[in-house]
């Protein structure tokens, strides 16, 4: 398949699929998460079953071109009044009869329905494959977004922990200055309050990391939350000009590449074949057949004994010119044992062969109405194709705007961090020489921390928006 969009949607760096932490937790890369989702997601499994069903339907369609062969055999007993073969008198007796045969049938012509059914089966195979690939794209995006949330939470926690280390260092420096009598005791209170606030934020950030990991594990159908962890990977902004491409080019490429449109197109072609198959019922059908059959019975046979002494002759006619009777010897009838089983099968066999032509004349409007229903289905599938194209166009526009907005947001976040870093460095210098108090320094540091957290979120949001837009344009890191 043309992907695995294993999104690696973000896999710009190489990492092992799994590694072990000192504490024994399994560390998952993004690629490993997506691969696991492909193998275990229920929706993907359902789509794979749809493909297997389409393969079976194709096999059925091919089988319609092949001759049919059916063999039958029966053995039955008849108990009751049956005619005696010698006397002709009805007597109570039990007789057994065995019969067997085989029939070969072949479809010579059926209004091209078999051929069009095979074409429809091939189209259904493609539609099922496209549906699976679309499902994999959707699952990969969902997993990547969940993975992204974990990265954002972890880096947010990292920023808070690093800033708190700086705060604790400032507290130590301030305590030393207080002991030296350089600054008053009250200057440390603001730093201690800042430290307490940062400690609280760290606790919340740790909970966010845990919750985001649980959400990712649930998306992967993994229930061992305690031992689930992602790999320590970092991602850089990809070098791409996708946001500078013409939006119309992206839309046209998306219509050629995206599976939702391909599925809708195949559904239109399938609906067209259904109309052709329904119309095939207007045409005559011609079948050929060949049948071989034979039988065997345990009933006694009629045989001839000697001449009847009491009535040695019997009349079988008369001479037309003279009227004289024509007689022949009158033999006695006797009961003989049935012939051996194999002998009877050879003697009693027979064959039947021929062709059968069926011409539809009138069937209560069933064929005509069925054609109309298939035509309605065709129009419905065309409308669905048009809707899929409109939805895709809207999605591309949204992704395009989101990517451009994310680029500007990230650029602004970077500038904000630079500005806040400069402001903090200046505030720290003033604080170190006693020209400002701890409150001013704490406020500057808080603004820097917020700016760094916003930059982390803007960075990963920008990466994700770029990859979504590239996906619409048909660019996939892994083919």
CATH topology: Outer membrane efflux proteins (OEP)
Radius of gyration: 44 Å
The parts where pLDDT drops under 50 for at least 5 residues are: 1-24
Secondary-structure arrangement, i.e. CATH architecture: Up-down Bundle
Shape: elongated
Number of domains: 1
Element string (H = helix, E = strand): EEHHEEHHEHHEEEEEHEHH
Beta-strand proportion: 15-25%
Instruction: Give the distance, in angstroms, between the N- and C-terminal Cα atoms.
Output: 8 Å
Mean pLDDT across the residues is: 84
Strand order, main sheet: write it out: 3-4-6-11
Helix content: 55-70%
The largest pleated sheet is described as: 4 strands, antiparallel
The CATH homologous superfamily is named: Outer membrane efflux proteins (OEP)
How many β-strand stretches?
11
The chain-level structural class is alpha+beta
Write the layout of secondary structure elements.
Layout: E1 18-20, E2 26-28, H1 30-40, H2 42-63, E3 68-83, E4 90-109, H3 113-180, H4 187-219, E5 228-230, H5 247-257, H6 259-279, E6 285-297, E7 301-307, E8 313-318, E9 325-329, E10 331-336, H7 341-347, E11 350-358, H8 366-432, H9 438-472
Parallel strand pairs: 2-5
Antiparallel strand pairs: 1-2, 3-4, 4-6, 6-11, 7-10, 8-9
Helix pairs in contact: 1-3, 2-3, 3-4, 3-6, 3-9, 5-8, 6-8, 8-9
Write up what this structure looks like:
- With 479 residues, the protein is of the alpha+beta class.
- The chain has a single domain, classed as Outer membrane efflux proteins (OEP).
- The protein contains 9 helices and 11 strands.
- The protein has helices spanning 30-40, 42-63, 113-180, 187-219, 247-257, 259-279, 341-347, 366-432, 438-472; strands at 18-20, 26-28, 68-83, 90-109, 228-230, 285-297, 301-307, 313-318, 325-329, 331-336, 350-358.
- Strand 1 (18-20) and strand 2 (26-28) form a beta hairpin.
- The termini are close together.
């Amino acid at each position: 398949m043309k992907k695995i969009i294993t999104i690696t949607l973000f896999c710009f760096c190489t990492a092992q699929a799994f590694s072990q932490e000192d504490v024994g937790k399994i560390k998952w890369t993004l690629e490993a998460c997506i691969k696991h989702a492909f193998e275990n997601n229920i929706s993907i499994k359902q789509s794979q079953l749809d493909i297997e069903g389409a393969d079976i339907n194709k096999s059925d369609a091919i089988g319609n071109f092949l001759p049919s062969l059916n063999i039958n055999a029966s053995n039955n007993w008849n108990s009751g009044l049956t005619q005696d073969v010698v006397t002709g008198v009805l007597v109570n007796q039990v007789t057994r009869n065995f019969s067997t045969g085989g029939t070969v049938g072949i479809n010579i012509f059926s209004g091209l329905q078999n051929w069009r059914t095979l074409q429809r089966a091939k189209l259904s195979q493609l539609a099922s494959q496209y549906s699976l690939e679309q499902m994999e794209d959707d699952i990969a995006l969902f997993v990547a977004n969940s993975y992204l949330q974990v990265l954002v939470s972890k880096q947010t926690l990292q920023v808070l922990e690093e800033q708190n280390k700086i705060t604790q260092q400032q507290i130590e420096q301030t305590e030393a200055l207080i002991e030296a009598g350089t600054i008053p005791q009250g200057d440390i209170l603001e730093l201690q309050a800042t430290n307490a606030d940062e400690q609280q934020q760290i606790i919340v950030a740790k909970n966010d990391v845990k919750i985001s990991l649980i959400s990712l594990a649930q998306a992967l159908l993994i229930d061992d939350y305690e031992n689930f962890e992602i790999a320590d990977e970092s991602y850089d902004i990809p070098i791409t000009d996708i946001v500078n491409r013409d939006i119309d080019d992206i839309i046209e490429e998306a219509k050629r590449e995206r599976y939702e449109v391909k599925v809708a197109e195949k559904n239109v072609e399938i609906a067209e074949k259904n109309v052709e198959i329904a119309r095939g019922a207007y045409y005559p059908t011609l079948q050929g057949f060949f049948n071989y059959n034979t039988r065997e019975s345990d009933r006694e046979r009629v045989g001839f004994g000697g001449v009847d002494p009491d009535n040695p002759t019997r009349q079988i006619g008369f001479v037309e010119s003279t009227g004289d009777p024509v007689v022949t010897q009158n033999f006695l009838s006797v009961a003989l044992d049935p012939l051996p089983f194999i002998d009877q099968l050879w003697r009693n066999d027979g064959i039947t062969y021929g062709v059968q032509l069926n011409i539809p004349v009138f069937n209560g409007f069933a064929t005509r109405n069925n054609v109309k229903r298939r035509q309605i289905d065709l129009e419905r599938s065309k409308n669905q194709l048009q809707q899929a194209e409109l939805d895709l166009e809207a999605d591309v526009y949204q992704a395009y705007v989101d990517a451009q907005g994310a680029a500007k947001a990230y650029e602004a976040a970077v500038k904000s961090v630079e500005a806040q870093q400069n402001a903090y460095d200046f505030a720290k210098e003033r604080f170190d020489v006693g020209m400002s108090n701890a409150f001013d320094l704490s406020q500057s540091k808080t603004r820097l921390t917020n700016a760094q957290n916003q930059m982390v979120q803007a960075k990963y949001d920008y990466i994700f928006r770029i990859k979504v837009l590239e996906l619409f344009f048909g660019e996939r890191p892994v083919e």
